[in-house]
Records
---
Amino acid sequence: MENHRLEDALLSLKSTKVRMTPQRHAILEYLLSARSHPTADDIYKALETKFPNMSVATVYNNLRVFKEVGLVRELTYGDSSSRFDSNTTDHYHVICQDCGKIVDFHYPGLDEVETLAEHVTGFKVTDHRMEIYGECPECQNHQKH
Ligand SMILES: [Zn+2]
Ligand SMILES: [Zn+2]
């Protein structure tokens, strides 16, 4: 757990007048320590015993707040299974097609592609998304046995 990240996040929440609650704090802490790009359901299950009165909707509402202030990124997959990423620096994702694991992958930003896309299409490009798919080392091992 990188404590300075939690402190930074708490400070930026403070500056946006977002009220801190124990649940909100726990969700944030979980997100920042998780490298797994959890879903709202994953977070709910992880904190269920600590906060028996908390609902999945509460988790979602908090994630929306964190997203609005730029603390997390939402990776949408066209259904309700959005994954949340507390790593808001530029990076790409490698995704296991067997177990769904998402691993951060650093590669020099493909800014040239954005520039070229603007040139060719006349769009004002704001972002891009690239995902790499395959089979993670764990799943490859499972197959061998
Ligand atoms: Zn896998
Ligand atoms: Zn990520």
---
Amino acid sequence: MDNLMHEIANCRLCADRFAQTQTQHSPRPVAWFSPKARILIAGQAPGMRVHQSGRPFTDPSGDRLRDWMGIGSDIFYDTSRIAIVPMAFCFPGYDAKGADLPPPAICAKTWRDRVLNTLPNIRLTLLVGGHAMKWHLGKTGVTDIVSNWNDHLPHVIPLPHPSWRNTAWIKKHPWFEADLLPALRSRVQEVLDDN
Ligand code: SF4
């Protein structure tokens, strides 16, 4: 486990790719997990703020995700309860429109199975965004998958990415806040309370 963390922290597989982006940044893997974790947050990839802080979801998306889950930072960052394992551990850079580039596929290919194999106690997986849904469910189409969130209970709950870019999506689908979020908070609490 410590070896794996060390290997990830020192990974430079995407160094050339990142050097060619507008920000010309170096890899800075942000991995946050321990074998005791019971909830897995399968996210997308760090944004620039997380790249700078070295801690996952230290941005408005994180504030929104914690609100969705009904928990504070103390529980969110407690690796004995929650593992945060995105589809790529490093900030991928920006595209020409200023949006984050997709997570480099090589990251999940290289690390994901190895990391998930160290997490035997996961009882609830939150699939945050389309990349995580594709990998974990083998399906695409965020709206379709999230609107059928009941199909995946009790072990998986699919969510749109909590980015401000999805605010219009959330407004357009009122069942998300009315039905899915109460069920999410209830299931998160149930898993956290079940020792
Ligand atoms: S994104 Fe993943 S594969 Fe690429 S450098 Fe970072 S840790 Fe390595």
---
Amino acid sequence: MSLFTELQQELDALKDAGTYKRLNYIEGPQGARVQMEGRGEVIVLSSNNYLGLANEPAVVEAGVEALRQFGAGTASVRFICGTFTVHRELEAALARFVGTEASMSYVSAWNANEALTPTIVREGDFVISDALNHASIIDSVRLAKAITKCTTAVYKHADMDDLREKLRAHQSAPRKIIWTDGVFSMEGAIAKLPDILQIAREEGAIVVMDDSHATGVLGKTGRGTAEHFGVLGEVDIITSTLGKALGGAAGGFIAGPAALCDIMTQRSRPQLFSNALPPTVAASALAAVRYTEAHPELVTRLHDNARYFRAAIQEAGFKPLPGETPIVPIIVGETALAIRMSNLLLERGVFVTGFGFPVVPKGEARVRCQVSAAHTRTDLDAVVEAFKSAGKVAGIL
Ligand SMILES: Cc1ncc(COP(=O)(O)O)c(C=O)c1O
């Protein structure tokens, strides 16, 4: 049988199991409500557009202006002739925002994460990662192990005893690196950052935190998990995305000491062998950072909306995973049920995605709701009504 026939059979099996992902096409800008092809207006409850900046005029205009000033793109990798002044400005703004000395942009947070570990570890070093870390961190650690022959381990999710024990078992490793998400995207749980920092200090490790779901989201002014816990400036390395709260286009970054960012320029393979972030995207992200700094009330509104929705969905009879972030996952069990719930909600004008295995553990499929500052109370009330109706049809309520 040919490869492509086998692939078609895999697709058919996914369809039979009710776990095939159908793409929905959006005809206009991302926002609290979008125009979906074939459906008309729907309320979006599955976007990472946490601050509603994807269609903020200042953010869009900055991209348009950069397109005029810099043209379409870099047409080169960065060190050859692919760096624009807007990259430098963006990186300075990102470093200021997350509380580090410097930062280095990448075309995605996936790219940034994947670049980091193989560049900073050597044979004999020890890298330890939370069991629920994002796939890009997992792949980064795997890549580092394959390239450098470093030693790796996974600690049980948020289990500080397990983390400490495994670090102690590798005490003699020259470099010890702890990788954690700031906010775990499928749970909406916040990392125990103060404990992790303490353990790192005591065990001689450095902390790398992916704050993709926390940048623009956590802390009074949206600076992320470190601000949330009052430890801004204490995390050794932060990675994050520009594809969520900060405008939502694409892009990611590594933030930390200037020497680290310079080494990433010198040695990280995605910098050496792949084009830089398009200047339009860099300019929009820069405008998004400035907008967030100038409008802390957006972050307050996001926090208020998240609290409001969490209470309302519980009141309606659902049991979301507890938490304090705008990610509100509702566990339904089997993957097919999560997808059915998502389809029923779409029929009721609410766009929210169901996630199942292998994105989340078997039997813990969920509908993951994500609240935005762009939602009005009317939007959120309409979502809760749709959930009640869909939940009854699906037999969840
Ligand atoms: C925790 C985390 N890290 C990294 C990424 C990748 O972000 P990007 O879209 O910028 O590659 C995501 C996106 O889902 C994420 O949730």
